[in-house]
From TrEMBL:
Principal location class: cytoplasm
Protein name: Methylated-DNA--protein-cysteine methyltransferase
Role, per record: Involved in the cellular defense against the biological effects of O6-methylguanine (O6-MeG) and O4-methylthymine (O4-MeT) in DNA. Repairs the methylated nucleobase in DNA by stoichiometrically transferring the methyl group to a cysteine residue in the enzyme. This is a suicide reaction: the enzyme is irreversibly inactivated.
InterPro entries referenced in this protein's UniProt entry, alphabetically: MethylDNA_cys_MeTrfase_AS, MethylDNA_cys_MeTrfase_DNA-bd, MethylDNA_cys_MeTrfase_DNAb, MethylG_MeTrfase_N, MGMT, MGMT_N_sf, WH-like_DNA-bd_sf
Reactions it catalyzes: a 4-O-methyl-thymidine in DNA + L-cysteinyl-[protein] = a thymidine in DNA + S-methyl-L-cysteinyl-[protein]; a 6-O-methyl-2'-deoxyguanosine in DNA + L-cysteinyl-[protein] = S-methyl-L-cysteinyl-[protein] + a 2'-deoxyguanosine in DNA
Natural source organism: Streptomyces xinghaiensis
Keywords: Cytoplasm, DNA damage, DNA repair, Methyltransferase, Transferase
GO terms assigned for molecular function: methylated-DNA-[protein]-cysteine S-methyltransferase activity
Length: 186
C-alpha cells in the first residue's frame, strides 16, 4: 500500500496542501479548490522540509518571487491515459505564456476535444507546478479554474501573462464560494 504524507505551506494565494505518495509529490491543493480530495486521504503529517516537500517549497518560493524555476520536479500523478497526456502538455506551456483549450486539444491531436481537455485540466492534482492556470478560453477569456478566478488572475499576472481584461466574458463556473477567513487573498 502506498505511503502518503502531507504538509501545509503558506503562499500568496493562501495555504497550499502538499501531498506525497511514496516520497514523490502527488498533490498540491488550494483551500476551497474544486475537486480537492478529502483531507483524510492526504496521509500522515510531515514537516515542510521532509522529502519531497523541501524541494517543492524551494520551487514555490522561487515561483512566487517572480523567478522562473527551470527544473522539473518528480511527480506521481494518478489519472487516465488522456489526463496524463493533457497534464504532460500543460508542463510544456512556457512560463509567461498561455494556450487556449482548443490549442491544447490541437497539440494533442484531438482538435475537437477542447471540453475533454478542460475536464482533464480541472482534475490536475498538482496545480501551479503543472500549470493548468495557463490555459484560457477562446479569445483570451479567463474561464473556470479549480482554485477560483482570482487566484488564476494572480498567477497569470505574476508571470506577466494576464490577457487583456474583458469582464463581459469572464466566467467562473468553478467558483468554490467565498474563501475561508484564514485564506490569504491578494
Amino acid at each position: 500500500m502506498p505511503q502518503r504524507t502531507h504538509t501545509v505551506v503558506g503562499s500568496p494565494v493562501g495555504p497550499l496542501t502538499l501531498v506525497a505518495t511514496d516520497g514523490v509529490l502527488s498533490g498540491l491543493y488550494m483551500t476551497g479548490q474544486r475537486h480537492r480530495p478529502a483531507d483524510e486521504t492526504f496521509g500522515s503529517p510531515a514537516g515542510p522540509g521532509a522529502t519531497p516537500f523541501g524541494e517543492v517549497v524551494r520551487f514555490l518560493d522561487a515561483y512566487f518571487a517572480g523567478e522562473r524555476p527551470h527544473y522539473g520536479l518528480p511527480l506521481h500523478m494518478a489519472g487516465t491515459p488522456f489526463q496524463q497526456r493533457v497534464w504532460a502538455a500543460l508542463r510544456d506551456i512556457p512560463y509567461g505564456e498561455t494556450r487556449s483549450y482548443g490549442e491544447l486539444a490541437a497539440v494533442l491531436g484531438r482538435p475537437t476535444a477542447s471540453r475533454a481537455v478542460g475536464m482533464a485540466n480541472g482534475r490536475n492534482p498538482v496545480g501551479i507546478i503543472v500549470p493548468c492556470h495557463r490555459v484560457i478560453g477562446a479569445g483570451g477569456s479567463l474561464t473556470g479554474y479549480g482554485g477560483g478566478l482570482d487566484r488564476k488572475r494572480h498567477l497569470l499576472a505574476l508571470e506577466g501573462a494576464l490577457p487583456d481584461p474583458d469582464p463581459g466574458r469572464a466566467t467562473d463556473s468553478a467558483a468554490p464560494g467565498p474563501a475561508p477567513a484564514h485564506a490569504v487573498l491578494f
